[in-house]
Design a protein that fits this description.
The protein is α/β, with parallel strands linked by helices. It has one domain: Rossmann fold. The protein has seven helices and eleven strands. Strands 2, 4, 5, 6, 7, 10 and 11 form a seven-stranded mixed sheet that branches. The longest helix has 18 residues. About 10% of the residues have low confidence.
Amino acid sequence: MSLFSADEVKALSEQSSPGNAAVPVKDIFAEKQRAGWHKPDDKALEARCDLSVERMTMTPHASIPVLSIWKKSIKGRTLTDIKADDEMVKYFADHLTPVIKKVLGNYLSNGHWAIVPSPKRRHLTKNFACRIASEIGARLQIPYYEDVAIAHSRQRVGVEFDLGTLPPEPNLIIFDDFVTTGSTLNAMYRLLEPLGKNLFFVVGINNNL
């Protein structure tokens, strides 16, 4: 069940935050050096993101509109480095929470909402997406539910999830830290949409631009 009409998705996809130009914001962690999870030679090949440039976009992924506020870039920190930095949890929440409030507007104030992260795969503890979603939920003053979708493998293409905890709220913000192919979010849609949930998909970094 789609929360927005086709015209609303098109309008959001053409706008940035605010206006139609990229908005530079101060990235206080841009110069921080952290040990990566890859060999040095591999880090040069990794996707990167310049978190000092914020751009709100609504991009379709297999017909599902997904809101993001950053996109991959040539320069910036690697995605591995970002996920390894505990301070990035607050940084993501600081920037994503007001964007969600701005986009949902009256939808958020008039509906019964909860926030749900993508399922845990590689990192079962201190999961980056889960920690950000929990922080956003606290700031929006809406419930946070973990393990709504259960992944039984690390597979990301053609994946299917099992249902874990089903939130009673009719409106769900589905959050993931990064989106590349959109397979994870599409699997969340296939799991929850038939159960009558209204789904709004939000990610931090669009890694597919």
